[in-house]
Amino acid sequence: MKGFFIKHCMVKLIPQIEKKIEKVLKKLNLTPFESPENFIQRTEGKKHRYSTLCENEKGEKFIFYARLHDSPFEKKRMKNEVKMANALRKKNYPFFPKYIEAKTEQDFEWIVREYFQENTLESKKEIEKLSRPLTEEEILQICKVLLAFQKIKLSEFPFLKPRELKKFLILPEEIKERKIFGKEEYLAEKLIRENRKFLIKENRFFTHGDFQIGNIIFEKGKIKVIDLESAMISNFAYDICFLWARLWREKVRRKILEKFYSLLPKGKRKKFELLFRINALFIGFHSFVANVKEYSEKMKIKRKDFFWKLMKKALFSFEDLKKI
To answer: Is residue 124 part of a domain?
Structure first.
């Protein structure tokens, strides 16, 4: 079975991972609604981690997940979330889930967190597509959480790493190499070069790192933000820009950006406008070059076109970006 996955999915599963996970579940006295073996078969080994609803002897429900892929990149991310989970067990952030237990084993990691009856905001059938319209109150809650991130003390999470700014700084070279803009390539180089020190200075806030609708749940009307494996230190405009960009199929992205901007203290707005442009160029480029396998060829072209426009608008002004 594993040979099939390695050959056809280009991924390598941790050896004997099904048995290792079952051993942990037994030790925790948790009964999974879907076994690791069935999960791997159903997802064809493509999911980087196993996730299932579980029940204890009292009938209490929890979510259990563990790393499946034998990948240094996924290992690094999952270990980061285990550390986040254990740190958050001692804190009280209402917008994060309650973590019950989390551990790094010899060759994989696992987490148990509270169970939510509601699903994430992302459609089960289509990625980057809302499952339903957002209310004004939900938009407000999303923006307030993003503002609250700025007040999180980094000393509470001393293991978090700052974003590697080299990835931002080499953007002009990557854009030039792919000949994305032609004559306007120099504007990307100018935007990054002239704001290098500013970008370094602002790289100092807690950031979710993957703040998108697939990681947002509204449980009993209250927002919950899950999957903290990409948490890091970055600039305060990154998460809102990431969410806005990933909502490329939804007009509500404009409302979210407008609401967030209106809630920002006036003294931070100019900084935000500039950071948003730089983030948009970065996120836009990586989204433009990504091969999203879940999309048809027609949708891939449409997606690329959006992110090309996004990058181009980022070269000129925040006002141009808002209109996309």
So the answer is: no
d(CA 82, CA 112): 10
Q: How far apart are CA 52 and CA 36, in angstroms?
A: 9
- List the structure tokens of 51: 């996730």
Looking at the fold, whether 148 and 242 belong to one and the same domain comes out as: yes
- Are residues 67 and 155 both part of a single domain? no
Helix (H) or strand (E) segment spanning residue 225: strand 222-225
Please work out, in degrees rounded to the nearest 5, the angle formed at the alpha carbon of residue 211 by the alpha carbons of 209 and 216: 140
Cβ(215)–Cβ(120) under 8 Å?
yes
In contact, 227 and 215? CB cutoff 8 Å: yes
* Integer angstrom CA distances of residue 169 from 115, 165, 226, 321: 40, 6, 30, 21
CA angle in degrees (0–180, nearest 5) for 94-81-281:
90
In a shared domain, residues 100 and 146: no
The span from the CA of 95 to the CA of 263, in Å, is 18
pLDDT digits (tens, 9 = 90+) for 99-144: 999 999 999 999 999 999 999 999 999 999 999 999 999 999 999 9
Residue in the block written with tokens 């989970």: 85
298: left (phi over 0), alpha (psi -120 to 50) or beta: alpha
Quote the tokens at residue 183.
């004559």
User: Which parts of 105-139 are beta strand (E)?
Assistant: 109-114
The CATH number of residue 225's host domain is 3.90.1200.10
CA dist 142 and 259 (Å) reads 10
Q: What total number of domains does the chain contain?
A: 2
Indicate the pTM of the whole model.
0.94
**Is residue 129 situated within a structural domain?**
no
Neighbours of 253 (CB within 10 A): 17
Task: Check the CA dihedral 136-137-142-148 and report its sign.
Answer: positive
Q: pLDDT digit string (tens) for 36-52?
A: 999 999 999 999 999 99
Q: Residues 75, 120: contact at Cβ < 8 Å?
A: no
d(C-alpha 190, C-alpha 182), whole Å: 15
Alpha-carbon distance of 262 to 246, in angstroms, equals 21
